[in-house]
Amino acid sequence: MAPPTLPGLHDSQDDAQWRTAGERIQTLLDASSSGGAVARERAEQLVREVTDLYGAVLMRMMEVALAADPGLADRFAADDLVASLLLVHGLHPYDVERRVSDALDSVRPYLGSHGGDVSLLGVADGVVRLQFQGSCKTCPSSSITLELAVEDAVRAAAPEIASIEVVAADKDPSAGLIPADSLLTRLRSNGHRSTAWQPVPELAELSDGEVGGFRVSGTTTLVCRMGDDVFAYRDQCPSCTGTLAGAQLSGAVLRCPGCGAGFDVVHAGAGVGGDRHLEPIPVLMRDGVLSMATPQEVA
């Protein structure tokens, strides 16, 4: 059972405001450049002084709190907002291996929806060693969603790591294993677009079994909710190349309103009775907000 989060913080209406504070601070710093190099330098120094001050105060508060109740370490770590602030100041109560392991646990259900899994082999000298297992139920584009899910979760939990190393699993020709060299490299190779995570809090408003269309960073997506899980796909039917607007779910199968082709939204958009598939777009909970990894054109 997961430890309880801190009361009052995660339920606060202002929670989302503080989660995006870093972006607002960076925007203000960028704006200060208009006053010249000196103005920018002074603004950065001001931020450093304030950050160091609050870091020193947080360290003393952590020492007092954990001395009084060691169990608070679990509660601090379980609250995304508190944990992220502690990470900034190097005060997180868990070591890097524990954080990486917990991060992988958080995305394991998502990997399972793509027929995959991941094991943590260890963390040493800033290098996280992983091994992927399982069958990929669609084309290699599904492995890209796995890459994004795993890398984002690991780097968010342990920003101090230097790199992620994938160790190849023993191959089983009948299982259609996801090749290890396709993971954590595809988004950096030529011919692929880069990605950027965009918060889309509106996704949380979808009800069970509902299908909604969203325009995110210029990309039109179709989003389906199945119970507590949210799945997103590019708005294009691979069979007729038409839009999926108006598509409905029948169980876990999404039917194209144009040609009637069916796709399993739970298993990476695999075609029902055919080899065509939807193009998945990763959706993960990041800093307490559902976010989508949208493709960006490479300059």
From TrEMBL:
Single GO biological process annotation from the record: iron-sulfur cluster assembly
Keyword Iron in annotation: yes
Keywords from the UniProt entry: 2Fe-2S, Iron, Iron-sulfur, Metal-binding
Keyword set includes Magnesium: no
Domain of life: Bacteria
Domain Rieske: 197-292
Gene3D superfamilies: Fe-S cluster assembly (FSCA), Rieske [2Fe-2S] iron-sulphur domain
GO MF term set: 2 iron, 2 sulfur cluster binding; iron ion binding; monooxygenase activity; oxidoreductase activity, acting on paired donors, with incorporation or reduction of molecular oxygen
Function: May be involved in the formation or repair of [Fe-S] clusters present in iron-sulfur proteins.
Protein name (record): Rieske domain-containing protein
Lineage: Bacteria, Bacillati, Actinomycetota, Actinomycetes, Mycobacteriales
